[in-house]
Amino acid sequence: MPEPTPQTSPKPRLDRQPLWRHMLGAQLRTLRHGRDETLSETARRAGVSTQYLSEIERGAKEPSSEVIAAVAEALDVTLLDLTIAVAEGLRDAQTAPARAPRGPALFALAA
Questions:
Q1: Which CATH class is domain 18-95?
Q2: Could you give the CA distance from residue 10 to residue 105 in angstroms, rounded to a whole number?
Q3: What is the pLDDT of residues 29-49, one digit of tens each?
Q4: What is the tens place of the pLDDT at every residue in 75-92?
Q5: How many angstroms separate the CA atoms of 49 and 104, rounded?
Q6: What is the model's pTM?
Q7: Which of 8, 24, 26, 41 could in theory staple to 37 by disulfide, Cβ–Cβ 3.0 to 4.6 A?
Q8: Taking Cα atoms as reference points, which of 93, 86, 79 lies closest to residue 57?
Q9: How far apart are CA 18 and CA 94, in angstroms?
């Protein structure tokens, strides 16, 4: 009979953890919307292309620290405040309970 292997604590699955770039993008979009600005207005002030800022906001690009600082400055927020907001979003996402399905997904489960 094989000897039992010691159990280890399960490693968190990376596909369930939010990525920094996704949280950063969401925070930048929230800040931009709060200022009622278009992508092109913010991108122009930050010195980046509208397409690149859009990709950052969607979490499709991992911007350099220089670009993050430029976009933060364009949105009148300090790099420290932006970093804290992203870190808090990551912490909240880690500790948030699993969401119950809503809308069509809820009805699909009921069927």
A1: mainly alpha
A2: 29
A3: 999 999 999 999 999 999 999
A4: 999 999 999 999 999 998
A5: 37
A6: 0.72
A7: 41
A8: 86
A9: 8
